[in-house]
Amino acid sequence: MKAEMDKILSLADGESIAELQKYLSSLTNDQLITATTNSALKGKKVGSMLKGIFKGSPAVSSEGANRRLLVYEHLIPLCESGDLQAEVAADIIGLLMLETHTLSGSSLAKLAALFVDAIKVGKMGSGKSLELFPTILTALAACEALSYGKGELSGEEYKKQLINSLCSSRWDPQCVIHLTTMFRDVPLSSEELQFLVEKVLRMFSKLDLQEIPPLVYQLLLLSAKGCKKKILEGIVSNFRDQDLRQEEEQKDGENLHLEVQTIPQDQLRHVEGTVILHIVFAIRLDHELGREFLKSFKTSYGNLCPFSVALLLSVARIQRYEEQVFDLLKGAVIKSFKDEQLQQGSKFLQDLLPGHCSVAKMILDTVKNSVFGWDHVTQGLVQLGFFLMDTFGPKPGPFGKSTEGPVGVARTPSQQACKLGGQMLLQGFKMHEPIRGEILEQVLNRLVTKTASPVSHYLDLFSDIVISAPMILLESSSKVTETFDHLTYLPLATVQGLLKAVQPLLKVSMSLKDSLILVLRKAMFSSQLDGRKSAVTGFLLLLKNFKVLGSLASSQSTQAISSSQVQVDVHSRYNSAANEAFCLEILSSLRRCLGQQADVRLMLYEGFYDVLRRNSQLASSIMQTLLSQVRRYYEPEQDLLPPVKLEPCIAAHGDQVYLQEPLAHLVSCTVHCLMWLQNTQRAASLNADDSDDDEEEEEGYKSELQTILESMTRRMIKCELEDFELDKSAEFSLGSSVGVKNNIYAVLVMGLHEVLMEYNFIKANYNKTRFEELLQLFHRHHKLSEILKEKSGKGRGPSHKTPRSLLSMGFVSTLITVLFRDNSQGREEALSVLRSSGEFVRYALSVAVQKIQQLEETGHTDGPDGQYSDRTFRFLCDMTSVLMWRYTNIPSAVEEAGKKEKRCSLSQLCLEGLLKIFTACQQRYPEKMAQLLSTMDVAEDDAEQDDAAETNYFYIRQFQRALFTQLSGGEEDFNSREAQLLVSILTVLSRQLKPSSKQFVQMITWTVKICKETSFEDSAFCKGLLSLLLSLHVLYKTPASLLLELCQDIHSQLGDIDQDVEVEKHSHFTIINMKTATTAALLVLSQVDRVLDEVDWLIVRRKSQASSDKSGSAEASQAAGQQDPVEKAVTLQLGTLLTALNELVQTALLPGNCTVMLLRELSRTYTILTTLVKYYIQVCASQHGSLPNRFEKLVKLSGSHLTPQCYSFITYAQSGESNTGDDKKKKKRNEVNTAASAKLLRETKAIPNLIFSIEQYEKFLITLSKKSKVNLMQYMKLSTSRDFRINAATLDAALQEQEEPEETQKSQDTEAQEPKQKKRKQ
Predict the structure, then answer these.
(1) What is the DSSP string of 1122-1176?
(2) pTM of the model
(3) Is the pLDDT of residue 699 over 90?
(4) Segment Disordered: which positions (predicted)?
(5) According to the model, what pLDDT value does residue 1 have?
(6) Residue 439: left if φ>0, alpha if ψ -120 to 50, beta else—which one?
(7) What does the DSSP 8-state code read for residue 1279?
(8) What are the pLDDT digits (tens) for 164-192?
(9) Residue 1056 backbone phi and psi in degrees, to 5
């Protein structure tokens, strides 16, 4: 063999090609192949030998061509076999590539077939020889003609056939990457490329996970040829499927307690991370790819998934896409929340569409997945989190006040989006060390800089971070210290939130505590009032949280933020002693505040009680401070009246008088502290004896305080109003300084009365004489409050608000319980004293209602325990059961006497309280609603109910019974306010029922029955009842048919716009009568608006689906189009609405709101009909199908039943307006100019809008008629010419009037034109 090889080499080097040819011809094919193989395997001089063979085999001779083909056919499998050294194989392929163009067409065809067969049987594992294939295909394409079967094909066609058969065949997973790489060098048409890309994407599922990133890389390189969108969507959808499979396996694994993972999670995440890097790199280089990528998400968020969210966030690191990506994600998040809200609120949509895909869940999944080393995603997550919080956080209200809704549950889509931002940042903070510093810095920066807008959402996030990772936070404590420097300039609410959040850290970090104290000391002397208040807040917080040795374990107090994760307690033995010195030092700082403004003192008084409860060792200091402060205003001479000096409580500045010392709050704080100490010491003395010194000191201030309070009570009872310079003749107007002073005095005196009443009630221990004294105190209080009410009612100045009661929530709860429910024998006599005074009972109830209202509005109440939600909730439960008992057990007939007076009955007060409790509970403690209802012990009569829904329904039945009793009486006995309250309570309670439960159905049936049987002419009650009916109905089924019945009732009650037409009498719901019809019409129209919202949403959704489904076959989608449930539902809904509006449009509605609203809803209906028409235009353009019959009927209905009526209604509305305008002018000329012109302006805006939307609708109908070849305009009548109308009847009347004198005519003309001229100016 060697001899042949050497011979070929030597001849090749020589000049004579003829000899070389001759020698090669003498060799048999086998000899030649063996020589070549040996040479290749040894790797020596194989290149020279091949060159020699090619040199001696001229392509023009058939022998030479065959020999060349033989060499190719032999060497290609040899290179692929893997027996050769890599560089030898590369050399051989390189040489073969150079000579390919010399091969004949038939040889090329044979070689191509060889490749295709090898690929089909999976022999192209190493992919070395595949580099040659593109060269062969390119050469093939250049051939003129090739024999194929019996005929001939051009080279281009032949190549197409080859590629087709290649992509249709089965590929070995091993060679997918090589083939994809190979196709980059093959010139492909767009169809071939698409075919190829689809084939490669189908192969994804067959590949090993580790092979996917290199394949993606090759695909992205291939995308330079085109098919960018398809490639990206394929990659994303592959990972979406993988994620879903992995998630399901994980669930199955958890359920069966075994590992069934075909895809290991960490491996999948790492592969995803690598793929994301590849794609981002490709997008950086190819902006067209980036544009395609973003475009695919712009239409709908339906194709988002955790992988694509991560990809988007990584792309956001490229500057030119940053803004687009965040806007896109923001839009997707808010749209997803809005859609979810819309679907939850409507049974119609729930039945029509499958479950909702939540973008929020995807984003949180991305955060979770990013723990697998996705550093390129984390930065985007942080930015997106803050972007959502900044965009959707609470906004400042008017005058910079924050309009914060109830904290607790995120209800609106914006609140949910803001909450999502917070969750992302919190999870990110826990998982990723590198971004912690940045998150913390950004949160603290926002707390400091955003002083004009509310920052509660950032405070919540900061507080969560502190709780979840206190030790991590200590590493960046310098950032927190920097924030402390700004405390004096921050709004008070921010300071309170910030200090509350940092509290667990202060216990662990000495340096943090010291820096805070320094800042607070400076703040004590701040020139800003808010700065000083911040200092007081901070110091009180410190006092509450640094326990002094020997303090009682305060079982009653629950710490707002537990620091259970902080497992460190620095030098615990030294701690408590040091704490004592530290606390006493703070107290001495706080004493300075007692000389400052009333606001600062007030904060101090409200805080002392909490401090005492948490840190009972500070009792003597606190009590001494309070005692010395009380002494300043107390009159020690026992015979002098009044017992307090009110002069020093006010201060004057120029002619302004203002409060200097909130005396009533001071006494209230003292009383509560004293009571608490006495209770705890009574409990403690049973357990152990204390040291005598402390005892004596304590007894000292206790007895002195008790003496002062007793003396105050005695003398306050004796005091007449004249002693305080307040009597009926005193001035109380807030316009003068004397009036302001008297007002302040009155409020202080009333406050003192209340505090003393609470003190005496507790001290009395159900003693009859003490209760009589208490009642005398109340009469003094009542007399003064009556004078205040009377005076403020008369004055034209700013009206006087009832001052907030100083009774504590706990006391009010106890008081109403004993007044109504206490049946014990021993207390009967004493309580009868209080019960006998109707005024006192009413007062107790009204204070209870006032406290509940404060809780509903702000989330806490004044006085002790007001800040602790657990305790306030317990008081709520107690009050609920008392009010419920009082309302259900004492019939209102007993209270008939009170009816003659112009004020609400006690039953009504109870109902108001219950309504406020239920709403407050739903807003503040939504998860505790069942607990609240189960504590109401009215249920004792019935069987025990464990089920929450049953308990809830039990109370619903109670209130239904009460309402039924109200309605079964005559109209003169009907108490409208009480009935409205009952309906409101039923509305709140029915929200707790599940729409699928049988109780819900019973509730709807009952409401429908009441609406059908009640005929009282009370529009407010009617509004409440119909609102309840509609809100329930929406969750049960679509309200369209109900709306139609209501519209028919309204039409038959109010009559037709054409007075000569007799309206068919309908009475589905007797609650609709002449008086209530207008109210009902407004409600119906607002419900129509909601239904239109849903229909609009469905059409838009269908439109975006249709545009993304264009690739589907036209026939299939057309067949689906006729049966499409969404289109069918939309058409039916609109049909029913058109019929309902047809009734309303013929109704003689009163001019004003109702007319304007109807015009608005009509124009909206036409706009939505236009949207539907546009959708069908789009369908016809892409599919050339026929229109569904239902849609044609809908168009016919709109043309015959609605459009003509709209025009006559417009005429009616315009004439109606001018008539009422004229009547008014005769009565009140000056007022009507402004009112009538404003009304006309509003009116005239609605009318052109309606006409425009009708004409737009008709315009697009013409377009659709042309596209679909169906004449839809045959159903439309020509519209009225509105510019020039002659009404015969009006003309006759006018001609008759002309006979009257000219002068009156002229004066009327000028009058009638006034508002019109005004309108023109505007």
Answers:
(1) HH-HHHHHHHHHHHHHHHHHHHHHTB-PPTTHHHHHHHHHHHHHHHHHHHHHHHH
(2) 0.85
(3) no
(4) 1293-1322
(5) 52
(6) alpha
(7) P
(8) 877 887 887 777 888 888 888 888 888 88
(9) -95, 160
Q: Amino acid identity of 973?
A: D
Distance (Å, whole) CA 893 – CA 883: 17
CA angle 151, 136, 32 (to 5 degrees): 100
Write down the pLDDT at residue 973. 78
Find tokens 């009006």 and name the residue.
Answer: 1290
pLDDT at residue 39, as a whole number: 73
HSE on the CB side for 89, CA within 13 Å?
Answer: 18
pLDDT for 529-580, tens place per residue? Answer: 899 999 999 999 988 888 776 655 444 333 333 333 333 344 443 466 677 8
- Which residues are bridge partners to 650 per DSSP? 659
Give the pLDDT confidence score for residue 569 in this predicted structure.
Answer: 40
Could you tell me the two tokens for 1224? Answer: 């008014």
Hey, what are 699's tokens? 């007894």
Collapsed DSSP state (helix, strand, coil) of residue 859: coil
Residue type, 1204: P
Q: Which residues contact 969 (CB under 8 A, 6 or more apart)?
A: none
Q: What is the pLDDT of residue 1236?
A: 58
306 upstream amide cis, omega within 30 of 0: no
**Helical residues (DSSP H) of 370-469, grouped into ranges:** 375-392, 413-431, 433-449, 456-468
Task: Supply the DSSP symbol for 634.
Answer: B
Query: Residues 1222, 1227, 1230, 1234: is their CA dihedral positive or negative?
Result: negative
Q: Which amino acid is at 344?
A: Q
* Per-residue pLDDT, 147: 65
Q: Which of 929, 729, 731, 757 is nearest to 837 (CA)?
A: 757
pLDDT the model gives residue 989: 93
| Cα gap 701→624, rounded to integer Å | 7
Give the mean pLDDT of 138-153.
70
CB 1033 within 8 A of CB 1126: no
Percent of the chain with pLDDT over 70: 83
Of 1032, 930, 924, 927, which is closest to residue 986 (Cα–Cα)?
A: 1032
Contact 1268, 1186 (CB under 8 A): yes
The counts of H helices and E strands in the chain are 56, 4
Split at pLDDT 50, 70, 90, the class of 897 is: very low
Q: Please list the residues that pair with 658 across neighbouring strands.
A: 651
Three-class DSSP category at 1284:
coil
Query: Which tokens is 714 given?
Result: 């005695």
Angle between helices 1077-1108 and 1019-1036 (to 10 degrees): 30
Is residue 1034 within 8 A of residue 1086, CB to CB? The reply is no
Q: Give the span between the Cα atoms of 1150 and 1026, in whole angstroms.
A: 20
Q: Chain-wide mean pLDDT for the chain? A: 82
| Residue 983: partners with Cβ closer than 8 Å, 6 or more residues away | 963, 1021, 1024, 1025, 1028
Query: Rounded to whole angstroms, how far apart are CA atoms 627 and 677?
Result: 14
Question: Residue 1269: which region, alpha, beta or left (left: phi > 0; alpha: psi -120 to 50)?
Answer: left
Q: Round to whole Å and give the CA distance between 1305 and 91.
A: 112
Mean pLDDT, rounded, for 462-484: 88
Output DSSP code: residue 801.
P
pLDDT value of position 260: 54
Mean pLDDT of 881-897: 76
